[in-house]
Amino acid sequence: MSVARSFSLGRFTTEFGVDLPGAHLSYRTHGTLDRDGTNCVLLPSYYTGTHRSYEPWIGPGRMFDPRDWFVVAVDMFGNGLSSSPSNHPLPRTFPLITIADNVRAQRALLDSLGVRGIALAAGWSMGALQCYEWAVRYPSMVRSLLPICGAARCSDFNRVFLDGVASTLTADPAYRSGTGPPVDGLRAFGRVYAGWAYSRDFFDRGSYRDVGYDSIDDLLDGWANDHAAMDADDLTAMLDTWRTADVGRGHPGGFDAALGSIGARTIVMPGTTDAYFTLADAAREAALVPGAELRPIDSELGHIAGRPGIRQAETDAIAAAARELLTDPPLTHTPETTAPRH
Predict the structure, then answer these.
(1) What does the pLDDT average to over 246-257?
(2) Which residues are 42's β-sheet partners?
(3) How far is the C-alpha of 19 from the C-alpha of 11, rounded, in Å?
(4) 313: which of 20, 55, 70, 116 is 20 to 30 A away, CA to CA?
C-alpha cells in the first residue's frame, strides 16, 4: 500500500513574487500510472483536510478504484503536511500562498510522477477551487472536471464569513503576542465556523443527530474541541489562500473568459443550502464553462454536503457523476498556445 510522500520544490516563488525556500508538497498515490500517463485522478485537499480525507472515495469498488486509476491525493500548502507556517522556521513570516501557487506546485509534482494528462480533477470545497484553477491554467492537461461544493473564486459574501471567523483568532491576546497557542480563539473559531458550515434546516430538523451529535450544544462543543487542537497560523494561512481565490486573476480576458477557456468535460455539484459557495454562484459559473452541467446536491447539510465520508447517498451521487466523466469522451481542449500564467 502506498504511503504519504514528500515532493521537494526547492526554492518556490509565489504568485506575488515571494520566495519560499525548501518548499515541499505532501501527497499520496493509489494505483499505477498507465503507459500513456493519462489515467490520473487528482484530488487536492480542502480546508482543515489532508490527503487522508479522501480515503472514503478511494479503494476497490469505490468511487476511484486504484485497479483502474492512478489517484493522486495532494495536500495544499498551509495544511500542516505540505509547507506550512507550523513547519516553517518563522511561522509568522510564511508568505501568502494562492490557489494558483498550489496548482503550479502540483503541476511540478505530477510532472515528476510522469503524469501527462489528468483524467479527472475532482475536489470538495477548497479542493474544488484548486480544480477550477487547474482547468483554466492547464486546459490541455485536464480531461474532465468535478468541482463539489466549491467555486472558481471567493465571493464578497464568502469573504465576510472568512474575515469574521479569522477575527476570533486575532481577538485572542495569545495569538496577537505569539506567546502560545490561542486556545480560546481556536475554540471560538470552531464554534463560529459551525454556524456557517450547516444550514438552518440542518438545525431545525435535528439532522445533527444523523452526523453523530446528541444536541446543538454537543455539536458546538465538538467543533470547538476539534479546532482547539489545530494550529492557528496554519488556519490563517489557508484562510488567506481561500480569500484570494480567483481563476480570472492574471487571465487576459478576466474571470468570465477564464471559465470560458475550460475545455474539460465538467459537472458542477454545489450544495443546495451551502452558505459559502452558493447554488446561485455555482449556476452562474457553470453557465460560463462550455458544455458544463449543473448538478446540485439536494441536502440540508449546508456546506458539508458531499464531504467525503459523511452521507452515503451524497457520495453515491458524486460517484455517479465521476463515472460519467471518466467514461465520456472529452470535449475539444483549448490548446496551450502561450506559456502558462505565473
Answers:
(1) 97
(2) 72, 121
(3) 6
(4) 70
For the chain, what are the domain ranges?
Answer: 5-154+245-327, 158-238
Question: CB of 4 within 8 A of CB of 26?
Answer: yes
Q: Would you please indicate which residues are annotated as catalytic (active-site) residues?
A: 125, 274, 303
pLDDT digits (tens, 9 = 90+) for 308-340: 999 999 999 999 999 999 996 554 434 333 334
State whether CATH 3.40.50.1820 applies to domain 5-154+245-327.
yes
Residues 6+ apart with CB under 8 A from 325: 120, 144, 145, 146, 265, 267
**pLDDT tier at 110, thresholds 50, 70, 90:** very high
The sheet with strand 70-74 has its strands ordered as 5-13, 19-30, 70-74, 40-44, 118-124, 144-148, 265-268, 293-294
CA distance 261 to 235: 32
Residue 195 to residue 208: CA distance in whole angstroms: 12
- 176 SS3 class: helix
Q: Which residue has the cell 479546532?
A: 227
CA distances from 278 to 149, 157, 287, 303 (A): 8, 10, 14, 9
The residue type found at 337 is T
